[in-house]
Amino acid sequence: MKLNELSPSVGSQRSKRRVGRGIGSGKGKTSGRGHKGQKSRSGVSIKGFEGGQMPFYRRLPKRGFTNIFRNKREIVNVGRIQKFVDEGKLDPKGIIGNSALKECGLIRGQSFNTRLLAKGNLKTAIQVSVNGASKAAIEAVEQAGGKVTIISPSGNDKKLSIKNSENKESEVGEGGNPPEPASV
Q1: Mean of the per-residue pLDDT values of the chain
Q2: What phi-psi label fits residue 134: left (phi over 0), alpha (psi between -120 and 50 degrees) or beta?
């Protein structure tokens, strides 16, 4: 068998119907579109058009809104961490952070804002470094002999506010340096 001898199986592909090629073809003159009107023209898009009646998508009530500034969180349960440790996908001796959780497939890593929850049982002493954790999850890890470290989520630590010696708040830019005073 050669590449030039390959062909689709018989009957799997039908040839394209040639329209507008005379009366004898069965699809001549109006090419199966009928006579005149909007649907006989090209470039017609009337999906959802209900003849002037109020369309269904406009009859439905609008409710709520989508908050574009919402915190997107990746949820990780201690029971799932224990399962991955038992399967050998996570090393319990090292620090289990966002990158380790992404490598083993526990989080997708779209936001890297991970929160640890207490669902499930934990038997292994582990060190976890996440962006947030519930009190019950922290207790569960500490009871197993481990430790939870809370780190600031990426993207939120660009601007911090610190207090000066005169108890006035000032903004601190990236790098921890205060902004330069504006020249007059």
Answers
A1: 83
A2: beta
Contact (Cβ atoms closer than 8 angstroms) between residue 108 and residue 127: no
| Residue 178: band (very low, low, confident or very high) from pLDDT cuts 50, 70, 90 | low
Structural domain count, the chain: 1
Q: Taking the CB of residue 148, how many other CB atoms lie within 10 A of it?
A: 20
Q: Which residues contact 98 (CB under 8 A, 6 or more apart)?
A: 107, 109, 112, 114, 129, 130, 131
Within a domain: 127: yes
Query: For the segment 95-126, what is each residue's pLDDT rounded down to a tens digit?
Result: 998 888 888 888 886 667 899 999 999 999 99
The CATH number linked to 123 is 3.100.10.10
Q: Give the pair of three-digit tokens for residue 40.
A: 């006989």
In a domain? residue 38: no
In a domain, 86, yes or no: yes
What residues make up the domain containing 95?
Answer: 74-150
Q: Is the pLDDT of residue 8 over 70?
A: yes
pLDDT digits (tens, 9 = 90+) for 45-84: 788 888 889 999 999 999 999 999 888 888 999 999 999 9
Q: Is residue 115 part of a domain?
A: yes
Q: Are 77 and 115 in contact (CB under 8 A)?
A: no
